[in-house]
Structure formats: C-alpha cells, structure tokens
C-alpha cells in the first residue's frame, strides 16, 4: 500500500517523493546496484583527511547491498524517511533506478502510454547489458500479460469516467489482441452495459481509479519484475514473518497464542501442552460420535447414538440447548454456520435439519432422503450448505436456507464424508469405498480422484485451504497438498477399524493433527514433522473424535463409546475450568453430570 506525505507526487527534479512499495526516490538515482561516490571523511584526527575504510562485501554472511536495500525499504515502510535517506547517503546505495521509479510513477499516475514504453524496453532476466538501468523481468514473466493488465486498468477507468467510446476502442484494439481467455474477454465486454460507475465497480469487483486499484496493479506488475531492480513490497517484514513461522513450525509443543518475539529463539514449555482431563461430561445416554467447537470457541456441539444434539456453553460447559427431532439411528454429523448462529445436523433417520443455535428452535427440515444423511458443510458466505448422503440420487447436494436444493454434484457414488476449503475452492467427498472425489467448487467440475488401499474414515481441510487430512481404517493418517496432490506427511500410532474415526487440525497456528482411535486413545502429532507428541488414554472402548478449540490452543475435547465427552487442557488450567463450572452450576437445573478432574 502506498505511504505518502501528501496526495500527489512532486515531479520537480531533486525533490524526494514517497512511493508505493515502501520506497523513496531521491535525485540523481543511480542504476540499481550501483553505488554513489562518497566524500572523504575526517577520521577524528589532526592529520586531516584520512582514506575511508572500504566496507566488507558481506554482513554476517549476507550480501551487504541486499541488506541495505531491505533496510531502506523497511525504514520507508515505517515512516522513517529521513533515516532511510541517511542510510542511502552513508552507504552510497539507492533503492531503485530512475527507470523503475519512472515506471512506478507512471502506473500510480495513470500515465499508461509512458508505462508501456518503459515496459517495452524491459529485458529478460539474465541478459542485462553493463550499465543498463532499464527494467529487468523476473524468470517466467510475460510482457504481453503485463501489458494486458495495464490496458485492462485503462479500460476500466475509461468506463468509470463514462467515456464509453474510448473504452470500446481500447477493448477492440488493445485488449482483444492480447487476451487468451475468451471468457475473460466476454466478461469485459459485458461491463460496457453497466449503467453507472457504482454498478461497474460492483460487477468488476474493482474499487475504481481513486481507490487502491492502481496500487494493486503495481503490486501485480512488481512480481513480474526482477527483485534485483524492484524489491517486492514490504520484503523485510515478509522475511521476518517467515522466520517466525519457521520457529513456530519447528516448536514441538507449540501452544502460545501470541506471535513469538524477534529478540530470542522461540520454544514452548511442554508442561503447558494440553494433556490432562479437566472435565468429564456425561449428559449423553448413548455413544457420542462427534464433538465440534463453534468458530468463535464460545460453544460446543455434541451428538451421537441417542438421537439428540447438545449445545454447551464454553468455558462453563453447561448445556444451553438440547435439540430433539431426529429419529432412530442417531445423529452422525453436525456443522456450525460461519456466524455460529445456525447448525446443520445429519441423521441416520434420513433427514437433515437446520437449527437456530441462539434459541434452540428447529428452522428447517430437508426433504427425506432414501438413505442416511452422512455429512454436512457450510459455504463460506453462510447462505447455503452442502449435505452428503448414502442416497446416490442426492449424494452431494447444495441447499439454501429455505430448504431448496440448489445443485446436485453427482449420482455416481455414495458419500460418507465431506470437506469444503475455507476459500471455497475445493469440495472433497469421501465415498463408502476407498476413494476421494475432489471437485472444483466454483466450476462444480470433478478435478481428480484418489484411491487408497484402505478405506478413509474422515477428511478435513486446513484453514489456509492448502492441505487435506485423510484418516484411514488401517491406522494411518495422511496430509496431502490439495493443489499438487502430493503426499506431505504421514501419521501413525493410532488404531483404525470398521467405524468412523474423526481426525482434524488444531493448536496454535494449526500446528498439530489430532485423532481418535479404536483402542480408546487420542493421538496427537506435530503436523510438520509427523512426530507423535501425545498418546492419551481417553475413552473405552473407542474414542470416536477429538476437536481442538479454534480460539484456545490450550483446550481440546474428545468423545467416545463410553457416553462421555472429555475436556482436555493442562494442569495449570484444571482449576480454572473447575471454578468456571462451579460458578455456573445450578443444582436445581443441572444433574451431577460432570466431574472436574486433575492432579
């Protein structure tokens, strides 16, 4: 994002100017990588001028010029312009060449002809002539694509100013020859029909010439230019974030919710890792098959063999709603809406139901399926949800909140489990055999299928929408990169079987994978390394599911065939949960269905 002292640029030669990308242009720019001549300095002696010591080429093993440019950019990003100028002056290193500065100014000022002229002189990476200060493209960059982006911005701005005639000329003569995507071209053509600038901005998902659109364009273009001449935006901040992420990912017992400090190496105390039962909840009368926290972590839903769903308050873990309405066979799956105000439940009675979680009222019952409804997920906008069923005619269906069917994906397989990526790109279905079916949710096309030697028992997708976690009946869980389809990690040490055992991600930064097990244990693995960091005896004979709180890295819950739900944390927090439970306990309203435990 552009950081500026005023709303415009001062084009006078020799004046400094704030730039997007955290840069600062000053007079007499040298070609990037060149150094200015520095005056001789008095060295504090009475003998007059002394020759200045040449600075070493490296800084603790890092290229000195790269480090200096990063510092100049970071200082500008933080608003320390004078300090940035001072570093540039003392080092003799400038952030960018005059050509790069001119290109940046042309984009931000909307000087499209000048921008294209500068781009026309760009050279492919690795072929720069000595002394050439022109643009240098990044590997794989395509000038025609960059030109298309520039001309598309020009087209949109002409439409916004209601200069339809010139916009049409740009579309015909400038954009059409470069466009490789006919659907994109048809979409741009359709924008000519917009009745107002507001209508245009809404339809194009574009904020206009006076919004951030030019800055966004510059950011896209900068990724196509070699970093040796045009640093990526906020590069030092990105590098520091990578350092933090790396330290977190290698912390075997990471539980800290706050980001690590840059002052020292990060590590978490093992004693803070949740491994103690702090509450035992026995309000269910049958096997408990699923436990799931709400997105905001303030409530928890449980369901199972006894046909009703319990909604619990967190952290008191008192039942606030008991949802009745499903018939024989039990409730196998629930899903919270994105705003946590609704809950979809799936029953073996061949019905799926929609509930108001604030009042506990039944809002909708979907049309009856021919076979049990197995699974459900919500679309990110909260206006529709998807069910999976053993009913082949409605194996995967999308429904609106009125209970109307929007779309049916397939009639080729039964569905036993569903997962939808948070970015709404991937819809993954688990059939009742050994296959996963991966659909593009936006196009609704089947992208690919995966066949396993053992039957999958549960699937889930990480919050960054990158990884698919598959638990299998052979006692192995796999982490798969959804885009590349490559196996990232394996997790072993738990026991599978013929029943569904649910696994998932959890902990601070989703650093862990957690799963139930046929032998009643909970297994916890470090997601990156695959190391098993915990194996906890939880239920008898089977632990059906475990779910980590999305807002509290010190808390997860488990459920099993012993009709119990258990809340896990560490010794330090055992007293807290007991106190919370006691403070909200009403002996008239509640039965003695809990037992805070701990050392």
From TrEMBL:
Pfam families found in the cross-reference section: LisH_WDR26, WD40
Domain CTLH: residue ranges: 96-166
WD repeat extents: 281-322, 331-365, 536-569
Highest taxon of the lineage: Eukaryota
SUPFAM superfamilies, sorted: WD40 repeat-like (SSF50978)
Ranges annotated as biased composition (Polar residues): 9-34
Keywords: Repeat, WD repeat
Chain segments carrying region Disordered: 1-60
Task of the protein: Involved in the proteasome-dependent degradation of fructose-1,6-bisphosphatase.
Name this protein carries in UniProt: CTLH domain-containing protein
